[in-house]
Design brief:
The complex is a heterotrimer of chains A (about 325), B (about 500) and C (about 325).
Chain A lengths: L6 H25 L6 H6 L1 H19 L7 H17 L5 H26 L3 H20 L10 E2 L3 H8 L1 E2 L3 E2 H18 L2 H11 L1 H6 L4 H27 L1 E2 L8 H10 L11 H20 L8 H18 L2 H15 L1
Antiparallel strand pairs in A: 1-4, 2-3
Helix pairs in contact in A: 1-13, 3-8, 3-11, 3-12, 3-13, 4-5, 4-6, 4-11, 5-6, 5-11, 7-11, 8-9, 9-11, 12-13, 12-14
Chain B lengths: L7 E12 L2 E12 L3 E6 L5 H8 L7 E6 L2 E3 L4 H6 L2 E4 L11 H6 L6 H15 L14 H14 L4 E5 L7 H16 L3 E5 L3 H7 L2 E6 L2 E7 L5 H8 L25 E8 L2 E8 L4 E5 L6 H8 L5 E8 L2 E2 L5 H7 L1 E4 L3 H5 L6 H6 L13 H15 L15 H13 L5 E5 L7 H16 L3 E6 L2 H7 L2 E6 L2 E6 L6 H8 L11
Parallel strand pairs in B: 3-8, 3-9, 6-7, 7-8, 13-18, 13-19, 16-17, 17-18
Antiparallel strand pairs in B: 1-2, 1-4, 4-5, 9-10, 11-12, 11-14, 14-15, 19-20
Helix pairs in contact in B: 14-15, 16-17
Chain C lengths: L8 H19 L6 H10 L1 H15 L7 H17 L3 H25 L4 H20 L9 H6 L3 E3 L2 E2 H19 L5 H7 L1 H6 L4 H27 L10 H11 L11 H21 L6 H37 L1 H4 L5
Antiparallel strand pairs in C: 1-2
Helix pairs in contact in C: 1-13, 3-8, 3-9, 3-11, 3-12, 3-13, 4-5, 4-6, 4-11, 5-6, 5-11, 12-13
Classes of the chains: A mainly alpha (about 325), B alpha/beta (about 500), C mainly alpha (about 325).
Chain lengths: ~325, ~500, ~325
């Protein structure tokens, strides 16, 4: 498979991620052998599935040079919309899910439109979006008989089984879904003409325009994808927990951005990949899970993630920084004398 | 014949500088005396801007020394260079867009604001430049921004002033007044390093000349010692092969042939009343000074800006006001003027760059990588592009090879009309020859070509017919045989015979 | 050459707030009571202080999403000393925390060249976790009454000393940034860092100072928080970073840097803090708080971008038109 932009560098980075992942599994396995049991290891993905899915599609946004910090709010909005439509609207649960996807797409469309067509900074629009969509989620609960803090439960078995079920009693459905989504996102980004356009818009938007690419449409579409991704995460999380709540995606924004950047996508745009994001998401998710299995207080879990992020990015950036390179060169010269 | 110079203001000895494995400066020796105007000439990649950045303290040399007024100095950062009286007026203006002209010029000055304001206003009056100090920098044209940059240098009473291509965006009058100031500064004992591509300016303004090529100084001396030919010789590598130009006389019977491009009274932003025709198998040169409106004209045709009135036809199909992708589909391709800004995908490889305009033909949904590889290879062979392969990253190619890839991209869609906007700007002489050969070959294959260039020599060399644009309008037409550098230059500067003006 | 009167962006923000208040007042006159207005101002003091700090960073063209965590850490750290009676040590501890975090952020961004969004994101995670480590997950309570009373102490009318002090600091910051030679570096660095380097302006030093000021201000905000709220949970300050970034943007500061002033940040902070009160006075349920904030932010930012784009386009067209028109003057000059 042809790897285009900075192909070799990215491949090295992704290989490093794979190694880190293996290392991580081994370390946690050593601390608590239960960790290595297939049932446990594979089942862990249920705990961080939404981060994995959302980050896959936020990758598209970052490659165009933008950023999306509203995904978490869309997760919650989708969840409550499904809940209210099913519970108070009497809609079939699967129809409600479709509406949920539409909601996510619309949220993405709105923000994407402003970013692409009015030239507002993505950070600000999606910041506003994060407020707006979480606020709308709360507003939606007004249409429900249930109080907003309680959440809506009692979903049909068939629905929750999608997220909770296992294939061969070991492989969680969600893992399969995740792999399917990774494949889909990979093909879309790295093998289609659309994906190539996404990259080109990120590398040089002006040149893309001069190449006849409708860069505004392409950029807007990445936000739509991101919104749909958040909706999918919202649907699965609702199914897994069996409850629809407005704040389901509250704290995932920062881990998502961490996963995308750690996965090799630069926030300046033009480089990145789906595989890297998927690996990084798994890395972060397993890190948190493994630490909690090692009896580390759940609240401390963000520390290693933060450290990992800073170290990883520092290594990448300082590696290409001339001044630091020459500093080390002088060091080496000193030692070789 | 070396004259006895007074103590040199600036002395550079043995400066070397490499970026990674790329050796940019390979041992530079240069002396500039008090009140000297040294014209520094050199092609792209010769190392001029790196050397200037070292003098300005932005980069540190790997080896060598710098003396100012006899004292060895270590210019570790720009603030130090400034303190020693060095000031670099950059080629691309680096102003603060949201600040006013005054704030821009006075930034970095500590002192009484009112006094500084008075000094600035007086200076502008003395120069007779029309600049409103309260205007926001982002609203200024490039030429005006360049003037503001010059003001910064002048206000700082620099002892060593470096001007990097200061006239590239100036009008004739502005250039003359700049020269007057340079004379003035010369008399005051300020040393000036004047970087330029324009050989005529060298003899007009400089008393010393130095030529840089491939990281070394190849020629150095008083400007009276050299002729234009000697300078050109000094710029080319020692064994340049004369590019094979197919000098076939191109006869097109315009009474029967159908023009590929027909423009009728086109008006838009930056140009008005443009009418012209381009026939297949011919090159129409469009000359003019920077800012004449040529790029605005062609980019409007290309769908980048709105049309106010008029019509454009490509092979009888109307393409007025159509979008870029529609225009391209009809068979018109455009090679952008600013390669770096609008042309290259710097961090992508050659294959990606080549296929970027032609994605439509690279498969339906899935990208046909084999087609892409074939396309890239085809053009690498045809153009003899110097690359390690189609996987090489665009940013690591030389300017000339980058331009070849960009041209290849425009040709990948099999256009009927190709518009080239300053195709050889910033590329070295050898690559320039290659590009000329490519253009001639395309013409022979029957492509209609509209060539925009500010290099009159280039227009003369390549064009079958030529036109000049001045202040947004066509002011003169030339048939083959009438095209000469002098007549082009005059017309480009707006000087036409009264009788030739179409009312 | 007349000095064209251009409304500074902060002025537009202030005008907007005044218009908003008047608008709400038209619907419910009780909103315009002095008491209410004072309440709005007083309750915005923590946001104001943190927003002032982050304004330094944003104006230089960077971002800091760790201010909420810094506030929480400073509040928790300082709070434990204050709870035990060592007010002085507590305040000092908080300031030191701010200083250290600011230095780390600044170092990572300017020396290691890590993009600021990422650096501060990582630090945010780390500090959040450290708060739990330090407090063991427990609340910091029993803050001495005298300390809590400080936040209620009125200077004149109903305006608290805290808010008055914040205003004074804002004014000082504004004067420094617009009138002093070195204060102008901030906006220069944000507007064009490359150009600033050429003029000898210390870009690294300026950005580093920005990060330090930002975190120190956030720490001060933490102390104010201790006094106002009276107890510190491990999630204190959560989400503040988004609120103060929104405050700055609403106040006319551009996220790309080089535009805006601290006055705008303070104005935006008032706006952000007042939204929930606005809802009450409009008779809307509090659930709409976020919705209103979101709509407000998007509308303001989009309108601003459109206005900017329009004026840039107008200027461009004028410039190009001037060129084509000048030919009519020089036509006919035969030599």
């Amino acid at each position: 498979m042809d790897k285009q932009t900075l192909g070799k560098k990215l491949f090295r980075w992704e290989s490093a991620l794979v190694l880190l992942l293996v290392f991580e599994v081994l370390v946690f396995g050593a601390i608590n052998p239960k960790f290595l049991m297939p049932r446990v290891l594979l089942g862990s993905i249920n705990n961080f599935m939404s981060i994995c899915i959302v980050s896959l599609f936020v990758t598209f946004v970052l490659i165009t040079g933008g950023i999306d910090i509203q995904a978490g709010s869309i997760v919650g909005l989708t969840s409550i919309v499904i809940g209210v439509l099913w519970n108070d609207g009497g809609l079939n649960i699967y129809t409600a899910c479709l509406v949920g996807l539409l909601v996510g797409a619309t949220c993405g469309l709105l923000s994407g439109f402003f970013v692409a067509y009015t030239g507002v900074q993505a950070m600000v629009v999606t910041l506003g979006g994060s407020f707006l969509y979480s606020g709308l989620a709360l507003a939606v609960t007004k249409f429900s008989s249930t109080e907003s803090y309680k959440g809506i439960s009692g979903f049909p078995e068939s629905f929750t089984a999608i997220a909770k079920g296992k294939i061969f009693s070991i492989i969680p459905n969600q893992l399969v879904i995740f792999i399917a989504l990774v494949l889909f996102a990979y093909v879309l980004l790295h093998m289609t003409k659309y994906g190539r356009k996404v990259f080109l818009c990120g590398v040089n938007k002006n040149a893309a325009e001069y190449s006849g690419i409708n860069s505004r449409l392409v950029i807007m579409s990445t936000y739509v994808l991101s919104g749909i991704g958040a909706s999918i995460a919202g649907i699965l999380l609702t199914a897994y927990l069996g409850t629809a709540k407005t704040d389901l995606g509250k704290e995932i924004t920062l881990p998502v951005i961490t996963a995308v950047v750690l996965g090799g996508t630069s926030n300046l745009g033009g480089t990145g990949g789906v595989i890297g994001t998927a690996l990084a998401a798994l890395l972060i998710g397993l890190l948190r899970f493994g630490l909690s299995m090692a009896d580390v207080n759940t609240q401390y879990l963000d520390i290693p993630v933060g450290v990992l992020l800073v170290l990883a990015v520092a290594a990448r950036f300082t590696g290409s920084n001339d001044k630091i390179r020459s500093f080390f060169r002088r060091f080496r010269v000193l030692f070789s004398k | 014949m070396k004259e006895n110079k007074p103590d040199a203001m600036l002395s550079i000895h043995g400066i070397t500088k490499s970026f990674g494995n790329n050796a940019v400066l390979k041992g530079i020796d240069l002396d500039i005396g008090v009140g000297d105007v040294l014209a520094l000439i050199g092609g792209n990649g010769a190392g001029k801007s790196t050397l200037m950045k070292i003098i300005m303290g932005i980069h540190q040399p790997d080896d060598g020394t710098i003396q100012i007024s006899g004292k060895t100095v270590r210019l570790s950062k720009p603030a130090v260079a400034l303190a020693h009286g060095v000031y670099l007026v950059p080629q691309e203006p680096m102003l603060f867009p949201h600040m006013s002209v005054e704030e821009n010029v006075l930034m970095g000055f500590s002192g009484n604001r009112n006094e500084l304001h008075k000094r600035l206003v007086e200076l502008i009056k003395h120069l007779d430049w029309k600049i409103d100090v309260y205007r926001k920098a982002e609203s200024l044209s490039i030429a005006e921004q360049q003037l503001v940059e010059l003001l910064r240098g002048l206000m700082r009473s620099a002892k060593i002033l470096i001007l990097d291509e200061p006239t590239s965006s100036l009008t004739f009058n502005e250039v003359q007044s700049l020269f007057a100031i340079i004379d003035d500064l010369k008399k005051k004992g300020i040393s000036i390093i004047y970087i330029t591509h324009r050989l005529t300016e060298v003899f007009e303004i400089a008393n010393r000349v130095a030529i840089m090529r491939d990281g070394i100084i190849t020629l150095n001396g008083s400007s009276s010692e050299f002729t234009r030919e000697m300078l050109v010789k000094g710029l080319l590598p020692d064994n340049t092969k004369e590019a094979e130009t197919i000098k076939e006389s191109c006869y097109i019977d315009r009474s029967t042939a159908e023009p590929t491009l027909v423009v009728e009274n086109l008006c838009g932003n930056g140009f008005a009343d443009i009418s012209l025709k381009v026939y297949p198998g011919e090159i129409l040169g469009l000359a003019g000074v920077v800012g004449a409106g040529r790029t605005e004209f062609v980019t409007t045709i290309f769908g980048r800006d709105s049309v106010r009135s008029g019509h454009v036809y490509l092979n009888k199909n109307e393409i007025t006001g159509k979008s870029t992708s529609q225009v391209m589909e009809q068979g018109l391709s455009y090679v952008a003027e600013d390669r770096f800004l609008n042309g290259i995908y710097k961090i992508s490889n050659v294959a990606v760059n080549t296929s970027a305009s032609n994605l439509k033909n690279m498969g339906r949904f899935l990208l046909n990588f084999r087609e892409e590889r074939k396309l890239a290879d085809r053009f690498i062979d045809a153009f003899r592009t110097k690359v390690t392969g189609r996987e090489q990253v665009m940013g690591s190619l030389s300017g000339g090879n980058q331009q070849k890839v960009v041209i290849a991209r425009s040709l990948a869609t099999n256009p009927k009309l190709l518009i080239l906007d300053e195709p050889t700007r910033g590329i070295d002489a050898a690559a320039r020859g290659d590009v000329y050969a490519i253009i001639e070959r395309l013409k022979a294959q029957g492509l209609a070509i509209l060539l925009i260039s500010s290099d009159m020599e280039e227009i003369v060399e390549l064009s079958d017919r030529a036109m000049t644009m001045y202040c947004g309008r066509i002011n003169k037409e030339f048939q083959k045989g009438e095209i000469s550098q002098d007549s082009l230059m005059s017309a480009a500067f707006g000087i036409v015979e009264r009788s030739e003006i179409n009312e | 050459m007349n000095k064209k009167f251009q409304l500074p962006r902060a002025a537009t923000a202030i005008l907007f707030i005044v218009a908003l208040f008047l608008g709400i007042g038209a619907i419910n006159p009780a909103f315009l009571s002095v008491q209410n207005i004072m309440l709005c101002l007083n309750s915005s003091v923590v946001y104001t202080v943190v927003a002032l700090g982050i304004a330094f960073v944003i104006i230089t063209g960077e971002i800091d999403v760790s201010v909420g965590a810094t506030l929480g850490m400073a509040a928790a750290g300082g709070g434990t000393y204050i709870r035990d009676g060592n007010t002085g040590t507590g305040v000092l501890a908080a300031l030191v925390i701010g200083l250290v975090i600011g230095l780390v952020n600044g170092f990572g961004v300017t020396i290691l060249r890590i993009p600021s969004i990422i650096m501060t994101l990582g630090i945010n995670g780390i500090v959040r976790g450290l708060i739990y480590v330090y407090t063991d997950g427990k609340w910091v309570e029993n803050i001495p009454f005298e300390f809590k009373a400080l936040s209620q102490a009125k200077a004149f009318g109903n305006l608290t000393w805290f808010y008055l002090a914040a205003l004074v600091v804002m004014l000082l910051a504004y004067l420094v940034m617009t009138s002093t030679h070195r204060g102008r570096y901030f906006i220069a660095v944000g507007d064009n860092a490359g150009g600033a380097t050429l003029l000898g302006i210390p870009v690294v030093g300026t950005k580093l100072t920005g990060f330090i000021l930002c975190s120190v201000f956030a720490a001060v905000g933490g102390i104010l928080y201790v006094s106002r709220v009276g107890f510190i949970t491990p999630i204190a300050g959560n989400g503040y970073e988004m609120k103060v970034i929104a405050a700055c943007v609403l106040g006319g500061i551009s996220l790309t840097g080089g535009v805006g002033s601290v006055v705008g940040a303070a104005a935006g902070a008032i706006l952000m803090a007042s939204i929930s009160r606005v809802l009450v006075f409009l008779g809307l349920p509090s659930e709409y708080d976020n919705t209103i904030t979101g709509i407000l932010l998007i509308v303001i930012v989009v309108v601003d971008a459109l206005v900017q784009a329009r004026s840039t386009e107008k200027v461009r067209k004028e410039r190009l038109a001037a060129k084509t028109n000048s030919v009519l003057e020089t036509a006919g000059e035969a030599r």
